[in-house]
Design goal:
It is built from 6 helices and 2 strands, in the order ββαααααα. A hairpin with a 3-residue loop joins β1 and β2. The protein is mainly alpha-helical.
Length: 177
Amino acid sequence: MKIYTKTGDQGMTQIYADKTTRVRKDSVELALYGTLDQLNALVGLLCCELTGDEQISKLTPALQQIQQNLFQLGYGISAQKVLDDSQTEQLEQAIDHFYAELPPQTSFILPSGTKAACTAHLCRTTTRQAERMMVGIQDHYDIPTNHLRFLNRLSDYFFALARWLNASRDVQEVPVP
C-alpha cells in the first residue's frame, strides 16, 4: 500500500464523521485533528525526554496511554465515541499525586526549567489549543462532554507534570512578578 493517494492534491480530504464527508484541508475539523496529532507527537517527544532516570521513566506508560486517548479523541466528532470518565479520573489521580509532592504554588510561573518540563508545558499549551477547537466545533458535531472534560484536565495534568519534573531535578520555578 502506498502512503500517498493523490486524492488530497486539490486541498480536499475525507473525514469519517456520522457519514463519510469531503472537507477542505483548512476546515475546523481538520484543524482539530491536526492539533490533536501535534499534541500526540509532543507527548511522544516528552516520553523521549524521560528516558535515563528510573523514577521519571516510570511515567512513560501513563503518557503512552494518554497518546492512545488522544488518538481516540479524534473520533469525538464521529459516531465512535470511546473515551469514558475513567480516563479523566486517572488524570485527576496523577495530578493529585504530583501536587502531594510539590510545594504550594504562590504565584504564576514561567514555562521553564528542564527540557522535559518545557516539553510538558508545550503539551499543556497544545492541549489548550485543542480544547478551544473542540469547543468551536460543538455547534456542528455532537462532542461528548467527557471529551472536553478530558482535554481540560489533561492541560492541568501537563502543568502539574511540568512542575513535578522540575522539582524532581531540584530546578526552581521562575515566578512571574
